[in-house]
Structure formats: C-alpha cells, structure tokens
Amino acid sequence: MDELDKQELPNATATLVLGILSIVFFCCYGIIGLALGIIALVISNKSVKLFKEAPEKYKGYSNLNAGRICAIIGVILSGIYLLVIIIYLIAFGTMFGAMGGWEELMEELQNLE
After folding, report:
1. What is the pTM of this model?
2. What are the residues whose beta carbons fall under 8 Å from the beta carbon of 1, sequence distance 6 or more?
3. What is the pLDDT, as a whole number, of residue 113?
4. What's the 3-state SS for 14-59?
5. Quick one: which of 83, 94, 85, 44 has its CA closest to 64?
6. Which residues of the chain have pLDDT under 70?
7. I want to staple 36 with a disulfide (CB 3.0 to 4.6 A). Which of 19, 22, 82, 104 is the partner?
8. pLDDT at 29
C-alpha cells in the first residue's frame, strides 16, 4: 500500500492544534491550558489504538504523536501554574488573616458608607 492510498488518522490535526494551544494558554491561571491538554489526550486515544491495530492503513502518526507530546507538556505546565497560584492564594490569605487584615478591611468598608 503506497502513501497515497493511506487514510489520515482521525483527530491527528485536532490533537496537534489542541496540544499547541494547551502550551500557549497555560498562563491563563492554568485552567484553559489544562482543559485543552486533557481534551487533546482524550481524543487522541482512539487514533493511537487505530494506528497500532493497522499501521499500514494510516498516515499522520507524526502529527498525532507531536500533538500528544505538546498536550502532555501543556498539562504539566498548566498543572504547575495552577498549583503555584493555589499555594500563593493560600499563603497570602493566611498571612492577611493573621495580621488582622480582614477586620481592618471590613471596618474601612463600613466607614466608606
């Protein structure tokens, strides 16, 4: 079977695009990049199974593989970024609360009225 007779793997291009976008959008509080990366990994699973069953029938595995790698990188970066933000918010909230900042803030807001 020559290269012209082979079918394109389903969702190979979509996986590549979503994988790249997951890296691009990891800095949006980690949520968008994480979602895009997970979606890319989920939709690529069926294509990987199809290719492993009959590799001679399909082309485009390099796009699929590159998309999966980008999606994994995007998920890792997004997860780390989201974790850093959560730790920062917990630390800042604890510090602000320990200084009595909440009471002062509420008093200032009441004085504004």
Report:
1. 0.79
2. 56, 57
3. 66
4. HHHHHHHHHHHCCCCCCHHHHHHHHHHHHHHHHHHHHHHHCHHHEE
5. 44
6. 1-3, 96-102, 113
7. 22
8. 83
